[in-house]
Structure formats: structure tokens, C-alpha cells
Fold these 4 entries.
Entry 1:
Amino acid sequence: MTKAGLRKPEFINEDGGVILIIYRPNIIKSDDPLKLSPLEKDILNLIVKDNQSTYDNLAISLSVSGATIKRAFRNLKVKGFIIRQGSKKIGYWMITEKGKSILS
């Protein structure tokens, strides 16, 4: 596991049993802008044009499923490229300074 860059597993003795904790690698690197997918870049560009688009409208525009759009938005939020302003129903998406730097 050390060769793969993973943390060592933990063994915990508890009440006549053993608990084994195996750690997974971190998949999303939130501060690595080079890991932005083409879909995520397309979404950022569409948000610039219309920041009140719905997931469904974006899915139709980009010819992908709604679940794919939601996953991409989650990644963009985790990476710090977008934030939500206002409520879920009448709010809008805003591109952060970090997101704007990727588009320029």
C-alpha cells in the first residue's frame, strides 16, 4: 500500500473482535485546475451566458443526462469554481474568481 501512496491500514482490537480500516486514495484534487473536464469547461461557459439555467436545460444543451450535469456541478463546487447564490428554487450560479481565471 505504501508503494501506491496509500495510508497504512489500521487494526483496532475491540470487544473480542478486530476492526480493519483501509483508506482509499483521494480522487478529487480540489486545487488542480488542469483536472477540469471538457464538460465542466462547457458548463462554466454556459453559466457565463445564462447563470439561471436549470440542470435539465444544461443537460439538453450539452446532450448529457441530468445526473451527469449534477455530478459535474458537484465537482465544480468542490473545486471552488462556482457557488450558489440565493435559494434552491430562485437562486443562480455564480462563477468564482478561480473559475474566471480558468476561462480567460
Note: The CA atoms of residues 84 and 93 lie 5 Å apart.
Entry 2:
Amino acid sequence: MINSSENLNNAPELNKLTIGEFESNICEFSFFEFWVENINNDYIIQTDNPSSIKCFSKVNGASIINDKKIVYIGSNLNIDLLIQSMFWLVLLSFIPKDKNIKSSPFKYKKYINIYNYFFIIYSLYF
């Protein structure tokens, strides 16, 4: 296959000479491969949200604008939603379930009623 990741060694170091390799080999280098080779370099990471699922967390391209190196990492809304949902479900599962729930009356109920009363009067006259 042409441009498959088996034919490529590692992601090259990002500089002006190798920027074309990132543009011609879209979705061939993982973000981790890129990060290992460019750990001490100065670059800006931007997500490419409308990319396909195949390109999730892979380098979608790179460019140099005003002497700033910008790397575009593939992201997908569906996968992002799944990952975030799993994260919140795991986080919420750590909340202990208290079997002895005490029903306590709301202390400030009369203050909220007074506030609502004044709010209604204010909204009617002003």
C-alpha cells in the first residue's frame, strides 16, 4: 500500500524541511509517535474536529504560519462523546450510595418565597 504506516519508520522531527512529509502522509503518524520525536520542540497543537474516525488521535497535517509550527491532530465528535461519557460514568460510580437518607426540610423555603414575591411585584410594576 502506498503511504501506509508500515512503510514509514517514525514520525520525523517537525521543521521547515520535513513539513511536507506531514502534509503528504495524512493520518499516518500517531500523536504519540509525533510527540516522542518532537518532545523538545516548540509547536502548537490544534484539533481537527471534523476528521474521520480513522484519523482519530493521528497527525492530520502541519503548517508553519508566522514562524509558528502548528500541528493538527484528528479528533472526532462521536469518539469524543463516548470517551467523555465513559469518564463521567466512571467518576459518578465512585460516589457512595447512602442507604440511610435523612429527609430534612428545606430551611430557607420562606426566604425564597419572600424573594419570589418581591420579584413578581417588581416585574409587574417596573
Note: The chain has a mean pLDDT of 78.
Entry 3:
Amino acid sequence: MHLRRSFCETEGIPPKIPKRQQSHLVDALVDQSGDVQLLGQDGSVHTAHSSILVESAPYFQALLSKNWSGENTKDLSLPVPATGETIKTFLKGLYGVPIGLQAQVGKNFPQLEDVYRLADACGARQICLQIVHCLEVSEANVSWWIDWLKEEHAPDEYEAVKKKVCSFMKSSFAPADLWDFFEPDTMQALWEVRQGDSRAQRALEKSRGKTKVAQ
């Protein structure tokens, strides 16, 4: 017996779209029907929907006043300088493509710190929270996040970042529960000492290599 499903039987069942295709679908949707343009510091132009921006970020609510008819495409400046890749990642996040997924599949994914800076300036807290949860602290960005900890932030974001910074610091120094109670200034000072020691060690190894060659 051949079983067939009618349209009515399948209606209401959402199609399964591979996650890797979601980002491309968002690009196509925005490019075809967006009514505003965001301008990047590198001269790039990015189309978006005013309704999405207004609902997602308070910064755009002030720019997109009710007096604007929406008939003509409106150019919008950003509160902080941002490259094209940073803006693109930010916009996709507003449209529902998770930041973590973009980081996994993106070829030219920007630094999370740059995306966070833009999202924070626009007041897009949902994007900021995504970033701190998928953040991986490393030697390349730990100083940036320690400086970030010196400022006031939303409690859920602050605690998530501090936990990851403390975990990284523990792995770089002798583990101790005391790290959880260190202030950002203390972390910064200790990390600078750690960096100084690393540079001294590399210089010593380099000089030893030259000595062996000379012999």
C-alpha cells in the first residue's frame, strides 16, 4: 500500500532548514526587501529592515522616527565605527542567526569584541548576551575583557565574562580559589607580569639558539 500525505496533513509542519543555510537565507531576504542602510567605516553598505532594528535595539528607535514614511531607503550612521564583517554579523544576530553558529560557519568572522562593542552601543542586549556565552578567553583577548570588567555591565553578562576570565587566569597561573575574589585591576597587573615573563623566556630561548649556532 502506498501512503501519501495530503497538503492539509503536512500543513503547519515547518520545513527543516540546515543551519548552515539560515545565514544565506537571511542575506537574500534583507537584500531584496530592506528599507534602511547601515554604513560601515570601510565604505560598505548593509541593507536592513527598519521594523527589525526598532524592535531589537533602542539606538535605532530614536533614528527611525514616526515621521519617516519609509518610502525611500534611509541611510543610518552607527554609534561606533564598525567594519563590514562586524555589521553583517551584528545584523544576522538581530535576524535570529545565533552568533555562535556564525562563528562556526563564517569564513571571515570578525572579532567578537568588535561585534560586542557595536551591539552594546546600540543597546542590543540579546546579542551581547549571546557573545559572552560563546566567548572563549585567550591570550589574544584577555586584556580587552579584563578592561571590560572594570566597567559596569548587566549582571548576567558581567558574571559570565568574569567566570571565563577567572578560568583562563587559573589555567595561566597556579590554580587557586582565591582568583574568584580578585578585582579586575589585580587581574590586569598579574597578567602584565605574566606577559613580561613570557617575553623574557622567549628572548632567553632565542639567545640560547644564537649561542649554539655560533659554537
Note: The chain has two domains: 20-131, 135-209.
Entry 4:
Amino acid sequence: MKAAPCTECENRLFGKKAELARIPGGCYKVLPPNGVWSHGRFLGLEREFEPTPMAHPTLPCLFRTLRHLRWSQVVARLRRTALRTLRLTDWPCPAIGSVDARSVRDDFPRMVRPSSRSTEALERSLAQWSDGVFEHLGRAESIGRHRPDWRLDDPKHDRLWTFTLHYHGWAHEMARIVGSKGKHADQAALLLHAYLGDWMERCAPRRIDPRSPAWNAYTVASRIVSWIRAYHGAGADPRLALPSFLPCLWRQARFLFHNIEWDLRANHLIRDAVGLAWAGRFFEGNEPRRWQARSDELAADQFREQILADGSHFERSPHYHVEVMRDCLDLACLTEDHGLATEWKRVWRAMAGYIAWLRHPDGSCPQFNDGGTCRPDGMHHDMPWAFESSPDARRPEGARHFPRAGIVVWHGTPWTVFFDVGPIGPDCQPGHGHADTLTVDASYGTDRLLIDAGCHGYDNDARRAFDRSTGAHNTVRIDGVDSSEMWGIFRVGRRARPINVGCDADVAGMRAEGSHDGYDFLNGAPRHGRSVRVRNHGSLEIDDRITGAGSHRIDGGWLLAPGWRASAVPGGWDVMNDGQAIHVRLASDQDIAPSVERRSVHPDYGVERTTCRLQWAYRGPLPLRVTTRFEPMAIRPGANAERADMVWNEPQAGGVERNPCTFSS
């Protein structure tokens, strides 16, 4: 296969058989027929994206991926693949007999989950539902009012949106309107009756299609919760009498009991336990008691495995940490084993203590690894019914190193800093991990400053490849290669391992450091090390050292939160928003090229915005040292921030400083 150098950079571009994917921020990736990704140059903002399938892995990459799996995962995946491939019609979901209201227990515990939408907001959604439009994950889609399109084929695009549609959160929302007895209750009852009736007729036939997103086990577990919440939320309204509702709910619980997700493990197993717990406490009978017993056994085992000694969830995603917290509280309230309930409330408190440290001043969490916008504050305020008192929701102060999670945190004035010095995730399931080792997330005052590119969704496309890549994070990339070997939607081959991690702190500030071996396989075995130093009422300094041998292409940078503007100045950049300004001073012992680029970021699922990235690049021999110092500046009274009429203590220098690296006292 022929290859030629790109006219914009020295990367190779392959021939006509290659597929060119336009990545957020303009990163060109070339996918040659041999299935190896080659990164190109960041050329500028590109707003159009075409779904581009990820490459099949090479055999060495596949080996590096599979070697970490447990045998139980392999066996479970082979079983699932056989059922999906052969399209077996005898999917293990036994037929059921008659199930009616007499099968429902009258002692279901009080269950309260934080609701992000008011009744008024739900009523405004009725107009959309009446037109067959469903909105979630930042996007409204029409599925049709009569004979809705439930998207039952195995989804290739909009996967997360389709799965969320089948979680049936909308059913509970409609039921809340019905239960409110307000002026829109009749309309909501008619819609709920129509949509659920159609779904049960067309999505829950006697023989289940194993390829259908409606019968993914995680989806089934989530839908069981939505249906039971809808049943109680509507107050058993007679207008919702659907003879097949309770039998179908029973059948879903039975299906889930036989299809626990041992292949995926991680948060999926905990959600499976939640679905069984809700069904086990909802129905009477010996079979529901078996569901509850399986739930208790599964949850007890998984909390021991997944919740680490420092209170963190082992997938190292704040978003999924909060999801597991919600599931943990559900399980504690649903189990009839007092000892387990007490233990799981203790687990919940440990997780709440961890996530309290991972909040920015605006209440949000850094988007490390996969996940959407995460604001856990509501959980602390809405959950006192489960405890003698509400957990402490005050913002911590000072430094904290969570060694099992691999996160170093500083809460001070004016800086809030999160430094990722941990593994990307558990060895058996790193699917929600990103190639972001040693990334930094920070706030200045109450404003987010340095952010992660986020997570747009879980499609096999260019956005997904970009979101997981090293170039989407505030860390260093070598030779255009990700620090951990990302492929497919959730697969990881080679994994970066953190080493030499340390943290020292006092009331005046903090210094943390770490390095990783993610690039040891490259010629010359380059290794990235980083130290982060923050001073209370002072500056934030990040020192990057790349050691090894040979000549390499190295780039790094800082992704700014939307709302900040940036301009290149001698010696670095000036950044400002409507009320604050920071001088970013860049220094190196080599000649490096700084620039400002436009990038796309994904602050929540399905949401895309544009912002600035402060970028630097270098090509040449190692070692290399690059120091970035963020220095607060004062805007002159009455000055126009757009004109960057600012005051700073350091004089301007010509170009990037050579060989200073002496900012630290």
C-alpha cells in the first residue's frame, strides 16, 4: 500500500483505500486497510462528522486486550455471541402463568430518587410526547405517535440514545403527571397507556430477539425500575389498566435472572442486582424471593470488589461513581437483610465522602473517563430519609491523595485542582477508560478553567475515537500515539501504568508528581513524568519531563472551559473570561511552538460545544522539559476584557523562554 507525507505535517497519509475521519477539533485520522490508526495533524475546527467504524485490531492488539479478561467473562461472552449470531429462538426466558394485582406486595419500601425535572417541566414535555417526540441525552427525536419506531434493530448509530429510550424513564415521568391529578393527568394517562401498550405488543413478543436493544440486560434492569416507579407513581390509576403489564414485568425480571452480565461485569452487575431487587420486593412468591436472594448475593460480592478502600468506584469515572451510589442506596433500602442494609449504607457514605472531594466549586465533577455532566450535590440533600441525618455536603479544603483511585485533589484559593495519577480502570473492564494518564482538571475561583473533552456517546465513530484519545486531554502525547491503546467503542489493548506517584502538602500549597510507562514500547522508550504545584493565593505550575532516547514528535496542551478566550503572547498565552484573567507562561529547555486552536468538547452526552485549546508542539531529541505556569492577573478597572488590557507582574519576553524551568522556589 502506498503512503505519502501529508502536506500539512510529516505524518503519512495512505492511499485511496484509506478512510479519512474528521475528528472534533480537526484532528485527521487515517485508517488504512491494515487496521492501524495513524494520527494526522490538528488543522482547525471541523463541524461535520461522518460515522467512521473503528478498525479491527491486529492480533497483537487483540492479545493485549484479551489477556486481562477473566475466564467467566470469556465464557459468558461466547454464550452471548452464539445466541446473537445463531439468532436462537429459544432465548432462555421461560413462559409464565397468570400474574395480576394479587401478586403485588403491599409492603414495598419507600423509595425516593432525586428528580431533576419538576412537574411543570414534565407537563411541558407532554406536547412532545403527543407528537411522538422523545428527548433525552441532549437530543429530541421523533419515533412517531401511532405505531412508534422503537428502533429494535441492533443499533449502529445513536446507540446510547436508543438504549435510553428503552430504559423507559419517560414512563415514570408520564406516571408522575398522572399521579399528580393535575389538569394534564388525563392526557398523560392516555399517552402512557398507548405507548406502553404498543411497546409490549411489539417489543416483548413470546420469542425474544437477542439482538434487540430492548432486551439488553442492563436495559431490562433499568426498565424494571422505571415500570415499578411508574406503577407506584400513578397510584394504580384505573386508566392505566393493561392486562399484560404485570405479566410482562414479571417476565423481564425472570429474563434478567437468567442473563446476568458476567461478560461485562463492573457497574453492569450492580445495575443487574438493582433490577432484581426492585422486582423481588415488588412481587409475592417463591420466584421473586429467589430474585431478591440473587440480588443480595450479587451486590454483596460486587461492592467488595468494586468499591475501593478510599471510597472510589474502580472504574474511576465520577459519572459512574454517582450512578453506583444511587444503585447502592436502592439496594440498601430494598434488601430485607438488616445486616446487608447497614453495610451498604456504610459503603454509600464512603462513596459520598470520596465524591465530595471531587466537586468543583460550581458543584460539578471533572469528566475523567466516560460520563456526562455529574453534579452529586443533590444526592446529599435528597437522601436524609435513608439515614439518621444528611451526609456532610460541605466543600473540603486542602489536599487529599486517593491512592486507590489514583487522584490527587487540591481545594484552596483560588485554585481547585484534580490530577489523575491512577490506572485508566480495572484490568478486567477498562471500557469506560480514556487514554488520559496524568491529565489535569482545574477551576479558577468559581469558574471551570481546564476541562476534559468529555464523552459524546457510545457509537463506533470518529467522535468516540477522539473523546478517548490522549490528544483530547490535558496531558502529553508522543509520536501521535495514545498513552493507552484505545480501539473499538470500549476496548483497550496496551494500558499505561502509573509509577513514581507522590504527594506533599501543607496549608500553603501542594506538590504532586507521577509518571507512566505508556510509551515504553516506542523506540527509545520515552517516558512522561509530570509534577503539579499549586500555591494558596498564588499560581498553578505544571512541569512535564519527557525522558528517553532518540528523536520524537511531542505535543501537549490545555483545553479551556467554554467561556474563556485565549490569545498567544510572547512567552505563552493570555486567557480571560468576563471577569477574570490569567497569564499562562510557557517555558522549555528546547524550542517549542505554542498556538491557540479551536476544539469541540462534549460536556454531556449528546452535547457539543466549541472552545479554545492552548497547544504546544515539539519535534527533536529527548530529553524535553516543558513548564506551564498559570498566573492570576488583575483587569484594570474599566478596561475592556476583549482588548486584554491587563496588568501582570512578569514582564513580557520574546518567544518561549529557553531553559528557565526555575519557577518553583
Note: The two ends are 54 Å apart (CA to CA).
